[in-house]
């Protein structure tokens, strides 16, 4: 079963979480099907993004979808992970051409320096017409191209959210896992020092505390994250610290796709009758597959005609003749 553990360090302005996606990740890959299975580096990219997206979603008080997206300018044109507040997740990557087994992150998504990473928070309460919140960062810092998803996201959190964050991510065919540490702002709701006012000294001390814990976390190797269970990882890294595991809030990461026949119908209506009609003439039916879960939705002539209003069914040439 996939698991998420959240923890604090007694007296320190640092919080952490560790995720291990097992069944959720395996189902996500299995639904992709063997014939369209991802090349290993793409699988690793998507798995690390999935683990990171769950960590980030679980760290914010927010009701809605967190979407982590990398739009690439190389063979991987898009990698996207969506995590709902209940930790239901889905993910997919669009790959054009071949990805070498030893391809680096920049070779996959940032060949010409135009790759971008975006995080979107799409609130449940969002009104129609109101845009969701989105932050975007490039996949490089000046001339330095990031070669780790964790580097990109640490950069994002610092730049967009002003949050010091340390991430260790790893993924293979069985498991996508991640460890995240964040420095809590002093004087905020989570102020552990209980000081009414935060002095520069307090802030400097807090930074030192965070740096010490972050240094321990960054000593974790990807291989250890993949091979050791959660409690062993936390014990090995932080055995000298007063680490306190927080109560499980009952949320467990799981695979979940939000596609439905109704959404596909909306999409077909958006395409318009002429487009749908030409596919029907050519193939006898319209078949739409969900790229996240593999579900196929079929519409024959009768299904398709029932979607459109009678006025839509007239060929375009008739329009305006009345
Ligand atoms: Zn689906």
Concise synopsis of the structure shown:
The chain has 322 residues and is an alpha+beta fold. The chain contains eleven helices and 15 strands.
**Which ligands does the model contain, each kind named once?**
zinc ion
Give the helix proportion (percent range): 25-40%
- Low-pLDDT windows of residues: 189-193, 318-322
CATH topology of the largest domain: Hsp33 domain
Order of helices and strands: EEHHEEEHEEEEHEEHHHEEHHEEHH
Rounded average pLDDT: 90
**Total helix count?**
11
Main sheet strand line-up? 7-6-3-4-5-13
- Rg over CA atoms, rounded to whole Å, is 23 Å
**Name of the CATH architecture of the largest domain:** 3-Layer(bab) Sandwich
Tell how many strands the DSSP assignment holds: 15
Measure the end-to-end span.
63 Å
Please report which band the strand proportion falls in: under 5%, 5-15%, 15-25%, 25-35%, 35-45% or over 45%: 25-35%
CATH homologous superfamily label of the largest domain: Hsp33 domain
Largest sheet report: 6 strands, mixed
Could you say which overall geometry the principal axes of the C-alpha atoms support?
elongated
Structural class: alpha+beta
Report the top-level CATH class of the largest domain: Alpha Beta
């Amino acid at each position: 079963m996939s698991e998420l553990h959240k923890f604090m360090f007694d007296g320190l302005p640092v919080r952490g979480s560790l995720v291990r996606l097992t069944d959720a990740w395996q189902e996500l890959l299995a639904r992709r099907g063997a014939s369209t299975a991802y090349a290993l580096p793409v699988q690793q990219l998507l798995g690390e993004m999935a683990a990171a997206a769950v960590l980030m979603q679980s760290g914010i008080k927010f009701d809605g979808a967190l979407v982590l997206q990398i739009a690439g300018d190389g063979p991987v044109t898009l990698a996207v992970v969506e995590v709902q507040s209940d930790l239901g997740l889905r993910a997919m990557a669009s790959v054009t051409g071949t990805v070498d087994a030893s391809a680096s992150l920049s070779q996959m998504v940032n060949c010409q320096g135009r790759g971008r990473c975006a995080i979107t928070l799409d609130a449940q309460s969002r009104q129609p017409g109101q845009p969701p919140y989105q932050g975007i960062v490039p996949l490089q810092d000046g001339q330095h191209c990031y070669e780790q998803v964790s580097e990109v996201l640490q950069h994002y959190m610092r730049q967009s959210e002003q949050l010091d964050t340390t991430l260790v991510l790893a993924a293979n065919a069985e498991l996508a896992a991640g460890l995240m540490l964040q420095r809590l702002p002093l004087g905020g709701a989570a102020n552990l020092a209980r000081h009414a006012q935060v002095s520069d000294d307090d802030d400097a001390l807090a930074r030192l505390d965070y740096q010490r814990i972050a240094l321990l976390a960054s000593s974790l190797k990807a291989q250890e994250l993949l091979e050791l269970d959660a409690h062993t990882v936390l014990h090995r890294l932080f055995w000298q610290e007063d680490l306190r595991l927080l109560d499980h809030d009952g949320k467990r990461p799981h695979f979940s796709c939000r596609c439905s026949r109704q959404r596909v119908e909306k999409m077909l209506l958006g395409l318009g009758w002429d487009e749908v009609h030409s596919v029907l003439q050519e193939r006898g039916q319209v078949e739409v597959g969900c790229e996240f879960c593999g579900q196929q939705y079929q519409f024959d002539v009768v299904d398709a005609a029932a979607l459109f209003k009678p006025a839509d069914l007239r060929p375009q040439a008739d329009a305006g003749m009345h």
